[in-house]
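Justification of resources, computational component.

The compute hours requested in this renewal are based largely on the per-chain cost of generating structure records like the one below. Each record pairs the submitted sequence with a full structure-token output. That output is archived, and it is also reused by downstream analysis tasks.
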Amino acid sequence: MTNRELVEARVDGAVAELRLCRPEALNALNLALAKAFAASVADVTARDTVRAIVISAEGKGFVAGGDVSEMAVDPAQGHVIVDQLLEVLNPAVLALRACDAPVIVAARGVAAGAGLSLLSGADLCVLDEAAKLVMAYDKVAGVPDCGGSWFLSQRIGRQRMAQMMLLGKALSAAEALEIGLVTEICPADEVDTRARALAQRIADGPTKSFGHFKRLLDKASEAGLAAQLDAERQAFVAAAQTEDFRQAVTAFANRENPSFRGR
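The structure output for this chain reads:
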């Protein structure tokens, strides 16, 4: 299959959607799908006109982790496949976090392994109310990848993450909503529509400001208070130099609604 067949990338105005298309394998990540996804991420994150990104998937499941069946062909060489996959996927994870455009995941069914990592690394997530979130690394004697140990430890805490890894505990959609891992849950047939609606709303917002916000969140886990105060100051000074900021404060003073342009 070609990259275009494996990942359907489309841009509608300021919203980009990357749709993984390997439903027969629950969108498990083999090298071909990983390369197609990474190429699509590189493309949309390089576009200044993209102000929100939706990551979705075909079929009944979101992403069932890495494709273990390919590793099982020659288990002694499984580490080579893992290394190749992460060499491709890690830059994509970094690009999604570094870009100003917020990322929204639309997930149905199971999100396991790297699929759970991609979900937890998103800024917002619309989840199928019957979905199940599972580490699954304990089943294959692996460890979290694609940023899962970093994102999940911040989003749900070390103790809950340890239960998922060491005891194989799955999270239901209701539990994921209760602990703040996902933004909202809804019936499976509404997931894509709701995620696109959120993306459109966000794409109408102050994109540069959102980018500064994303980076501040990521620094907060590592910085002390003094360093975070300095980072906030620098980010706000930079945001205050944007066209959106100047227009918004004028609109506020005139009791008008701002119209953001993402610059």
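The radius of gyration is 19 Å. The chain has two domains: 3-203, 207-253.
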